[in-house]
Amino acid sequence: MSNPRIFALIIGTEILNRRRIDKHFDFVSKTIGNYGCKLSGSLIIEDDPALIVQTLKFLSSQPNSIIFCFGGIGSTPDDYTRKCAAIALRDGELYTHPEAKAIIEERLGRDAYPYPIHMADLPKGRN
Fold it and tell me: What residue segments make up the domains of the chain, in order of their start?
């Protein structure tokens, strides 16, 4: 990809209301800088599914875009990012990635249920 436009999308109401301090921006900007790249933009948005979908659609519409997305992707019931990415960038469907499921089950055992196991639910990719 020639001249990639790299974006950081940081999702977290707790960052906007200052309950948490963001460390993602510093991490991603330094890391891509080590590869001779730079950010074209960074956004911090609240945990709102419609806003997440709209923002992902906008960023992905930019020529040669690469999006690093942080936050809202954990194992609690209010983490919407995976589903929103599927809606914005694919057909809206998630599937359980078998290797990811096995890793989560191996590491967490019974504690993988009921919520952490959903971290294995990913947008369907192109084969």
Answer: 5-91
